[in-house]
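The protein record now logged underneath.
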Amino acid sequence: MKIIMKRGYCPKCLEELGVLNSPDQLRVLEAQGKFPRRVAPLMWDADEVDDWLERFTGIRPQRPVCDC
């Protein structure tokens, strides 16, 4: 059985991308359907976040420099 690991963004990665909301605020937005879903308690699906940012800015974001 294969385990597929999804790439994720931690709060530090999101801050580098310009998303300055706290993790608690992001959970509220996620529950309202206004922000991509989490894949772990403090990790958001990177592909969904990239798509979300591209929709609002018109530019595909570069990967942040982070060791998460």
Observations:
- The helical segments are 11-17, 23-31, 46-57.
- The radius of gyration is 12 Å.
- The beta strands are 8-9, 38-40, 43-45.
- The chain has three helices and three strands.
